[in-house]
Design a protein that fits this description.
two-stranded antiparallel sheet, globular, 11 helices, three-stranded antiparallel β-sheet, mainly alpha
């Protein structure tokens, strides 16, 4: 009896240590990614590949310490292949390498099919949602692929960062003993909590800009621009990561809601200068990875902010 309790304590301590390792790796990855994105607006693929590789090794190690069936191992294999599919460019592989990668992709598809054919619904019990967390990794990655190809507001580095978070921190983690959760028993899978919290923080940017413009007395018609940008000296804007919200169309200087022809930014600065606009309205090139990083820490400290402060109030109003 004492031996069983001791073994259980060792396993629990080992898992807690593993959670902390994952958290610190995620913090290092996102802080470095945020720094390089702010400096250059680029994040090397090696960042996500390295931490994705470490995440895969940690999951494999954890699987070896627990009794998972072959079907769950098959899902893990398919998930790792799905992750690296975002980085392996078949156009730069030679013929043999391309064939080898295609074989791996086919095996991954068959492994995923095998998992969903053989899984028993009883494996996802009321007290143990860990298998659901494992499934959610692949679900999140598929959503990121869809968002990248069909969504207009996210870049490749942001998608890869979210996918890596899914692989690196798949299980619920909290520094707080009583974190905010969407449900009474447990919340959403942890990577989804981080992702949803990042959306909430991203929504705060327009509100922050609006009040900043009020304080700076940047109040001009048609007013919508106060939520998406601010005024900046033209010469400073040229050397900053910003886009002009004021553009010269024909002979008129107009305000645009969404900057479309971003490749023409330099010519727009020149046109604005010719029109005598010294302090044009600009919108910042804010990397999504910044609110994502803040969400990573806030999720660990506070919990599910998105569900608590956005979903629940909306539901109470509708209900």
């Amino acid at each position: 009896m004492i031996e069983d309790k001791l073994i259980a304590l060792i396993i629990r301590t080992n898992m807690e240590l593993l959670d902390w390792v994952r958290f610190f790796l995620g913090a290092i990855m996102l802080c470095y990614g945020s720094w390089t994105d702010l400096k250059t607006r680029r994040v090397p693929n090696q960042v996500w590949m390295i931490f994705g590789g470490l995440a895969s090794l940690l999951l494999i190690y954890e699987f070896t310490t627990e009794e998972w069936g072959v079907h769950v191992w098959s899902l893990l294999f398919a998930t790792i292949v799905l992750f690296y599919n975002a980085f392996i460019d078949e156009y730069v592989l030679d013929k043999n390498q391309s064939i080898g990668w295609q074989v791996i992709q086919v095996l991954a598809i068959l492994s995923a099919i095998y998992f969903f054919v053989t899984i028993d619904s009883d494996e996802i019990s009321y007290d143990n949602y860990k298998l659901l967390d494992i499934i959610s990794i692949s679900v999140l990655m598929i959503l990121m692929y869809v968002w990248f190809y069909f969504g207009p507001t996210i870049g490749g580095a942001d998608v890869k960062a979210i996918m890596t978070i899914g692989l690196l921190t798949p299980f619920t983690f909290s520094i707080n003993e009583d974190p905010l959760m969407a449900f009474e028993t447990r919340g959403f899978p942890y990577p989804f909590v981080v992702f949803m919290n990042s959306l909430l923080l991203y929504l705060l940017i327009p509100i922050t800009l609006f009040f900043y413009n009020l304080v700076c007395r940047n109040v001009e018609k048609p007013y919508f621009q106060m939520f998406f940008g601010t005024k900046m000296n033209l010469e400073k804007a040229r050397d900053s990561f910003v886009w002009p919200m004021q553009q010269v169309i024909g002979e008129k200087v107009i305000m645009v809601a969404f900057v479309k022809h971003k490749s023409d930014t330099e010519s727009q600065w020149e046109k604005l200068e010719e029109k005598g606009v010294e302090d044009p309205w600009i919108t910042f090139k804010i990397p999504y990875i910044i609110p994502l990083t803040l969400a990573f820490f806030s999720s660990a400290i506070l919990g599910d902010l998105f569900s608590t402060y956005l979903v629940e109030p909306i539901n109470s109003i509708i209900g």
